[in-house]
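hi! just following up on the protien thing from before. the input was this:
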Amino acid sequence: MTPINQTHISATHIGNGTLTLPNSNQTINVISNGTAIASLATPSAIAKTTIRAPNGETATLTFYEIIQFSNPTEAPLGGGKGIKIIIFHTNSTGMLAPLNGVIAAGINDIQPNGESELTAWRWESGIPLSTNMTTTSTNAAPTSETNVTTTAETTVGGGE
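and the predicted 3d structure came back as:
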């Protein structure tokens, strides 16, 4: 973690986890890395993360999180819980292609040592993905009752 000022920090994160692909029971292992800016005043964060599948395909995730720290006077080192909204972007035409444009909501359990565990589920709005968005593929992800579940354990830089 790197302090930006009295109310904001920058952090890098690395981790690994499992991902269940949309409309499938296929679970794959992924590795992740990214950066985040957190506000200790609001308390909230925004992050960009890249996940990599075993076959080399990648997806970029944008996270928005609201955090409740266990001990706000020691934040972020006291641990806490967060609620996240995630959007997946990928140019993949392979195994990660169904993730493009997927929105997920999740819970983040932040440990005092800087590690966290995120579990997220695909959000089903019932609204089809737009085909005129430059970040979506021409094969919009179908909607269904199937959830995307991502669980990752992430270590925040400097918290080891």
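The chain has one domain: 2-156.
The first strand starts at residue 2 and ends at 3.
cheers
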